[in-house]
Amino acid sequence: MKNHSRSFAVGLAAGIFGGLIGLGGGVIMIPLLTMVLGLSHKQAHGTSLVGIIFTGLGGAITYHLHGNVDWLAAGMLCLPAILTAGAGARFADTLPEWKLRKTFGAFLLFCAALMLVRFYLPQNDSQSPYFNILVFLITGAVTGFLSGMLGVGGGAIMIASMVLLTGFSQHMAQGTSLLVIVPVGLAGVVTHHELGNIAKRCLPGLIPGILAGVFLGGYVTGFIPEVPLRIAFTAAIVFLGWRCVRTVSAG
């Protein structure tokens, strides 16, 4: 029962962040799974992908009801991502624990940088559709590999790419990203399950917490100004990322 309560709390936190920002919540879930539930990083990455499926599903439904999902773009992002997610998961399984921690920490800091700059760069609303297709395919391939490797949805990369390179609105990019996270997460989960990297004992508490959190986050986000929300989230992932990198360096 105690483990389920902790798992629920972890899922709730990840779901709230996912609903608020339009991400899968892996950047929050993985550190909490290791620190609160004591999972290894490989287990945390695999288990996080299971949770991310439900974050993406709940969030995509919420955004779709408001007309903020581009299904065609989601399909073009999804196809290459599914093809590369398994390779990323298998690559992660070959890495020593400290390298996985260091890579994840660096990824968090990279996401923080994207969160800081993406709203201040010029957007192009008149880009060639062929260019957009190329952007979607490349972004999907990179996102899939990183998702399988790091146990995250890759929403920060997809959202930044859609907003900065293809002229998507922020809300449309977030809704589309959440939809893509669902099949990409499934692809990564299959491989992580084969490798034994999913802590099934955590799922009965984790999944309900995520579903409750993502709907709560999606509701609350309408009442919070975008800039303070972005700053708070960025500060959180900078702290978590630096913690991973510093711990590895000190070891």
Question: Can you offer a commentary on this structure?
Answer:
With 251 residues, the protein is an all-alpha fold. Helices cover 80% and strands 0% of the residues. The protein has ten helices and no strands. The protein is globular. The relative contact order is 0.24.
Quick tags:
single chain, 251 residues, mainly alpha, 80% helix, 0% strand, globular
Q: Strand percentage, roughly?
A: under 5%
Distinct helical segment count: 10
Mean pLDDT score, rounded?
80
Query: What is the C-alpha radius of gyration, as a whole number of Å?
Result: 17 Å
Q: Could you say which overall geometry the principal axes of the C-alpha atoms support?
A: globular
Compute the separation of the termini in Å.
34 Å
Point out poorly predicted stretches.
Answer: none
Helix content: over 70%
Count of strand segments? 0
Q: Report the biggest beta sheet as strand number plus sense, adding barrel if it closes.
A: none
Q: Element order, helices and strands?
A: HHHHHHHHHH
Look at the helices and sheets and give the structural class. mainly alpha
